[in-house]
Known about the structure:
Elements: H1 12-40, E1 54-59, E2 62-68, E3 84-86, E4 91-97, E5 103-112, E6 118-123, E7 128-130, E8 133-139, E9 149-158, E10 161-171, H2 177-191, H3 209-213, E11 219-221, H4 226-229, E12 236-238, E13 243-250, E14 253-264, E15 267-278, E16 285-295, E17 303-305, E18 308-312, E19 320-322, E20 328-333, E21 336-341, E22 346-351, H5 361-364, E23 368-375, E24 381-388, E25 398-406, E26 411-420, H6 424-430, E27 435-437, E28 442-447, E29 450-455, E30 461-465, E31 473-475, E32 481-484, E33 494-498, E34 503-507, E35 514-521, E36 524-530, E37 540-547, E38 550-557, E39 562-570, E40 573-582, E41 585-588, E42 592-595, E43 605-611, E44 615-621, E45 630-631, E46 634-637, E47 639-641, E48 646-647
Parallel strand pairs: 3-10, 22-46, 26-47, 26-48
Antiparallel strand pairs: 1-2, 1-4, 4-8, 5-6, 5-9, 7-8, 9-10, 11-16, 12-14, 13-14, 14-15, 15-16, 17-18, 17-45, 18-44, 19-20, 20-21, 21-22, 23-24, 24-25, 25-26, 27-28, 28-29, 29-30, 31-32, 32-33, 33-34, 35-36, 36-37, 37-38, 39-40, 40-41, 40-42, 43-44
Amino acid sequence: MALSFRTTGINKSTRNRIILLVVIFLASLVFFYLILNHHSNPQTSEMSKPTLPTVSITTEGHSQLSLSGYRDRMAVSDIDDFVLPVGSDRKLSAQISTYGASVSKISYEIRSVEEGRMVSSEKVSDLSSKGDTVTFDTQLTNLLSADQTYVLVIRLRSNGDDVWYYTPLMLTANSHVGDMIDFMQDFHEKSLSDDNSSIGKYLETDTSQAAEESSDLTRVDIRSQIGDIALEGLTHKVTSSPVIRVTDIQDDTMTADLIYTIRIEKADYLARETYRVRYGSPRMYLLSYRRTLDVIPSKTTFSVKKNVLSVGVTSTDMNTVTNEAGSVAGFVQAGNLYEYIQNKTEITRIFSFGDDFSGDARIRNQDHEIRILNVDAAGSMDFAVYGYMNAGRHEGYNGVDLYHYDSATGIASEEGFIESRHSLAYIRENFSELLYRTPGGLLYLMQNGRLLSIDLSSGEADVLLKNIKHEQYSVSEDSRYIAWTRSTEPSDEIKVRDLASGKTFSIKPEGGDRLRVMCFMEDNLVYGTCHSASDEYMYKLTIMSFKNDRLTKLKDYEKNNIYIKSVTSDENAVKLERVRKDGDTYRAASSDTILNTLDTTKDIGASYGTDRTMGRIRTITLTSVSDDAAQKLRFADSRMVLTSSVISIDLYNK
Length: 654
């Protein structure tokens, strides 16, 4: 009997189809992985370290300033934060710290402040080099008038590129500048040493019990206890040579700052001492003294307990923005931008020019500020860095650098850089009042009486309003809304623009009344009503809110025979200066306050805490959580995607 065999299992045709499907499936996985990976992981880069030399100048026997270099010429008319005093001999010496860069072809010029007119121009031929320092001595022109301010502009070639340095300069008739700087430096050194008893005679110490109980080492002054000024009981060490900046000279009186870094216990701080001294013989007179400390954040300076994040010692109000839920906070400290996400117990350093505060004077330069534009529920944010760029692709330029931070990827993407030839003070005054970015990539800004809309993808700009004076408009706290009238006088219409949606609303008075824009209480508009365009005072105030793309009246404020002279906004309240009409005369009346009772976030944001060692510290309060135990923080640094995009707009055309 013949045997026959039958194959069991999957037949060959089916098996081949299964193999083909598996191959297609695996290939698809690889393909989609590569596509998704390509989109979610753009090429990132680190912020490059500073490369430009710095310049300090010796006059009256003292090295002063630490000037940062610019890669383009700057407007000289608004450089006025400090002044370089030069003695009657008109001699000065410049020390250039090269940090390894090549330096050649040095020249300088002196210009008038008002017109920028050239007073003198000189080439420097006699240079002295030692290590990473290049020095030269010179005697300034005899065309300078005493006690008049000029601008000294030093130009040099660094690694083949031109770099400019600027400082106001004054030929002073005061022959005691060197003596007063000597006094300041001696006071500084003795105040932080064990031999500090001799400074007591210059202090005006408040010995009351109240003063002792309110000791705050973050801000000491001429009325403080010697022990507080000397940081007694705390291990401390000055970690950088103080930079001297003279800010004012009047006859025999001078005001100056000493800026340095100091390590106290296990934390590093930026310190600023401000002196006002009058020359006297045999004794100097200390008219005022103040020292502030601002912590340089590190992993050891943060702590969190329940819903409160402790940032550390800061002497000034902290720029803090929270999301709507109060679960994420962005904040600025020591020129760096951080974010704290509560549900992750994580702090991310989103932006920084570098870490070496004590070793590199270029990192310590604080001539920039950071403005947080918005923070969403997940922790993504838009922000702007404006002023001088210490490092990176735009090192040596002034302007506004725009970024979007994506919390999901941990990447901060640069969206564009708007270059400026003006100082931080000018940008702060003329630029930063309104900065608003929409999700669609439009940037709105108010500058020199113009409301501009900039498309960040193309760099194109539109002028939405022009020739508008400050008293004609007001901007909401988050910059989303702007309200304005057609003239500085009370008007027959108020226009309100929602920059998020692009919609414009109109508010008109009844009868022959006229309206005046006053302020915003957060995002609620406050405006006044007058009987006529010539009226100086308002008989009524109205508060309007924006809900679902509609204007809604919240409140009318009107009192019999009472008129409002002025209105100021203060967080969740507006304060009214009032007058009472008596016949044809208006007499001063008591002030009044309107509170925003709908504000549910007043307990969220920047606040104060107390450290038993240092005194007052900055804290950030977020939404309440149930866990009352101290929590362990996680730390991260964002990655950066930098662009060479420069938005070329004539921002300063009036």
